[in-house]
Amino acid sequence: MPNTSTIVAIKVDFEINSTDKLRRILFHLEKNTEGELIIWKIGFKLFERKDKKDPFDDPLVKFDIQVDKKLNDDAEKTSKKKKLSAPQEAQLLGPGASDAKRAKAGKIPQAKAEKTIQSALKQP
Fold first, then answer.
1. Strand, coil or helix: what is 36?
2. pLDDT, tens digit, for every residue of 17-28?
């Protein structure tokens, strides 16, 4: 019997809005397997507006991140939730969004911003 590989995909989307309604983050988790290899990816989009009466325009920042393998279990746990925890949301809306904007402006390396965003997976 020939060896076959099964591809299992999980896709979960979370929408996070700041309490002042001026910042929105779309956080997407996706899991794929290639044989025995598990690959998690994060899609991160940051939207901002000056007045909550205005619509959100195109994303201010957009990252597609391959998750560090050490965080695979955390990504799995997060994907099974119906919503992100308050500490996860705070990490993404605060340090995650700030570092994403700083990376876009060239003030920090994009890899640092990606690490900050990924760290939301470690939050309880």
1. coil
2. 999 999 999 999
